[in-house]
Specification:
Layout: H1 7-59, H2 62-76, E1 78-81, E2 89-91, H3 97-110, E3 116-119, E4 122-130, E5 137-142, H4 143-146, H5 150-192, H6 205-252, H7 259-285, E6 294-297, H8 298-311, E7 316-319, E8 325-328, H9 330-347, E9 353-359, E10 363-369, H10 404-415, E11 418-423, E12 429-436
Parallel strand pairs: 7-9
Antiparallel strand pairs: 1-5, 2-3, 3-4, 4-5, 6-8, 9-10, 10-12, 11-12
Helix pairs in contact: 1-3, 1-5, 5-6, 6-7, 7-10, 9-10
């Protein structure tokens, strides 16, 4: 039968095997360096008592021997008699280590081999035949006289420790592998596209952090899928309107030429081209690649940007800390600011828009402030989603493509910048870009 190729089974087997080997090694050391010396010393002491008792009995007058035998029986639990026991004696079927030690100690003291025998009618009674006097003496030892049973103790310890090791190993490995198994199932469900329930973020710190990161990744993937669905739905909806107008215009142009209809058709084509361009740009921004940067004077950069809006007849006010040298990507910063400014001018209702620069060594903050109606507080985070519009009708006359803020957010995250939207206390919206200090030019003093 093949052993299960699972993390639980293999980890359990590895830990249990290592602990059992260590237990066997410990038992070997304890037996050889503790139990065995103690057993040999005890056997030597008992052998000395037995030989001394037999010699003393032989030297006593016959009238005192019976009292001596009684004393040995009472005080030392040794049965000494000159007559052969009535029960038949036979060799030991099982020779415990202590009996081997005792035979060795007796043989060493008597100068000849000694064998311990067992009475057939009493398995707890052992007999030793001693040839000290002219006639043999028979010495009986009760099993409980020995007391210590190292082999049984070792077996009990091994069995108990093995059971404890097995249960502890299964419990520990199960606690370790259960979160990993849940993570594996979660990855499988995530890969199949099924709805992913958040994993419990509990247990050891490492596994809790892993579950937290997985839940975060799962949420990000789900958000990307939702954005994709919104993106495709938005494209299909936004393209359908100009296509419908083009279809009607083509029908009206049959057999005649209308400059107004041609202008409307060109405008619809430009709308579709702009929509497709912005969508493709957002898709490219999803790919994180190394972005080239350069040190520029942000004050002069924002002056040029404001001048381009002034030439278009838009009222823009500049509040700049100049000069301000910072390392940024010029094109990405311009695109983000263009999107924020276009959004501000769209909702400003013809009022002046302010572009403000605050520069210090730790960070740079660029804010676009307008006097429009602002954004409902519960929708501030939603406006960064692709194709999300405050106007649910998706009318192009009341809102843009819904991609401007989404592109700005993606570009900012790509460089580690932070975009925040806040409603101004006296009306309007504040959209700020915070560029952290790693973009600061250390060679420039302010």
């Amino acid at each position: 039968m093949r052993f299960p190729n699972t993390l639980f089974a293999r980890t359990s087997l590895t830990i249990a095997s290592a602990l059992l080997l260590f237990l066997l090694f410990t038992g070997f050391v304890v037996f050889n360096y503790i139990l065995s010396p103690v057993g040999k010393q005890g056997a030597a002491d008992l052998a000395a008592l037995m030989v001394l008792s037999a010699k003393t009995w032989g030297e006593l007058p016959p009238t005192a021997r019976e009292d001596f035998q009684q004393e040995l029986q009472t005080n030392h639990n040794l049965r000494l008699q000159p007559d052969q026991p009535a029960a038949k004696l036979s060799p030991l079927t099982l020779r415990p280590p202590y009996m081997l030690f005792l035979e060795e100690a007796l043989g060493s003291r008597l100068g000849h081999p000694v064998r311990i025998q067992q009475a057939d009618n009493d398995s707890n009674l052992y007999w030793v035949t001693l040839f000290i006097t002219d006639n043999p003496l028979y010495l009986g030892i009760q099993r409980h006289h020995i007391g210590a049973e190292p082999p049984r103790a070792v077996l009990i310890i091994l069995f108990g420790a093995s059971l404890f090791i097995l249960l502890t190993t299964l419990l520990i490995v199960r606690r370790i592998t259960s979160p990993l198994e849940a993570l594996s199932q979660g990855v499988k469900r995530l890969g199949s596209g099924a709805h992913q329930q958040p994993l419990p973020e509990n247990g050891p710190t490492e596994l809790a952090n892993l579950a937290q990161k997985f839940n975060q990744l799962s949420n990000e993937i789900q958000q990307l899928l939702d954005n994709r669905t919104t993106l495709l739905g938005g494209i299909s909806h936004d393209l359908r309107t100009p296509l419908s107008r083009l279809r009607i215009a083509v029908e009206l142009l049959q057999g005649q030429e209308d400059p107004a209809l041609l202008h409307s058709m060109r405008r619809d084509l430009e709308e579709m081209d702009a929509l497709i361009t912005r969508t493709l740009e957002l898709a490219r921004m999803m790919q994180r690649e190394e972005i080239p940067t350069e040190s520029i004077d942000l004050g002069a950069f924002l002056n040029d940007l404001g001048a381009s809006y002034t030439q278009e007849g838009k009222a823009i006010e500049l509040q700049l800390d100049a000069p301000c040298m910072f390392t940024v990507n010029r094109l990405i910063l311009r695109r983000i600011l263009n999107n924020l400014l276009d959004n501000a001018f769209h909702y400003a209702g013809g009022q002046r828009v302010m572009l403000r620069l605050q520069c210090c060594q730790s960070k740079v903050t660029i804010c676009v402030l307008d006097r429009g109606e602002g954004i409902p507080q519960d929708q501030i985070d939603k406006v960064f989603q692709p194709f999300y519009r405050l106007d649910p009708s998706r009318n192009r006359s009341t809102g843009g493509s819904g991609l401007g803020l989404a592109i700005a957010q993606q570009l900012a995250q790509l460089l580690g910048w932070i975009i925040t939207l806040e409603n101004r206390p006296d009306g309007g919206l504040s959209a700020c870009i915070e560029i952290p200090g790693q973009g600061h030019d250390p060679h420039r003093n302010y």
